[in-house]
Amino acid sequence: MAVPRKQQVSLADTTYYHCISRCVRRAFLCGEDKVTGHSFEHRRAWVEDKLLELTKVFCIDVCAYAVMSNHTHIVLCVDEKKANRLNQKAVIIRWHKLFKGNLLTQKYLSCEPLNTAEVNTLAEMTKVFRNRLKDISWFMRVLNEDIARKANFEDNCTGRFWEGRFKSQALLDEAALAACMAYVDLNPIRAKMASTPEKSDYTSIQQRINAALKGTQPKALLKFAGDPRKHMPKGLPFELKSYIELVELTGRIIREDKRGAISANELPMLTRLGISPENWLTLTTQFTKSFHGAVGKPGNMIEYCEHLKKKRRPNIANVTALLA
After folding, report:
1. Which end of the chain, C or N, has fewer beta carbons within 10 A?
2. Side-chain-side CA neighbours of residue 260 (13 Å)
3. Rounded CA gap, 288 and 20, in Å?
4. For the segment 280-290, what is each residue's pLDDT rounded down to a tens digit?
5. What is the DSSP letter of 4?
6. Whole-prediction pTM value?
């Protein structure tokens, strides 16, 4: 039975979430349909452009993404502090970049005088808009609706394009975050769509590698801030170099002729996170099969379920075996 979104998202436990959207039945998001011979490859750019564009509006950062032939994988980070810092005008301006608003918001931005009732009503609207700017459901809704409209227009049809609502997983700690990001970044390689990470088009790892070659990090993606420390700046709690090496080495392990050939010594991030190479291989090839729902070490899973008042403890056996 489907779990309400409000019971899956707990910002008190984690700001990181893995989101998956799939097309209905045999519909193609991108790639080439071998039955009809039609190519939908150009749609990858639609998804990537819209995804990165939304990071400029929402207070939500993109950590990793991969645009596949009939589904998308995205790892998001909610920046609640940023949303709460925005003043009223900034919130409404951002919202107008997505929707035209209403007469009251348009009147406010035009600097026309407002009476007391209008001021109070606008304050309530701003509160709603602010919450939506840090809401994963609204982020995915805007992304998926835009792609669905374009695809249906191109296909000259109507109806559902996506297979219901997107699926989401809470990533409760560094181990779950690192495993999920590597899983997402290596999706094209596992699907034989690319031979190396830098050749994986429309993925976050390709963007990060291209930027790293220039000595920078992509502005549209959440930056790597280095290992956790006392005064931690905003960003992913890993070293960029270590993560790229980790993805590269993991990609080699996945190859049939080199399974398990790389020792744990060459995977410094795995040693720090306390995950064995064998378990890491399972995590990065079968992440969605191994876990259904929130993911994290046993202690973090228990706290997460307690905060959301959940009696069941899903994934406990698997996280104990793979992450503990």
Report:
1. N
2. 4
3. 10
4. 677 677 777 77
5. P
6. 0.80
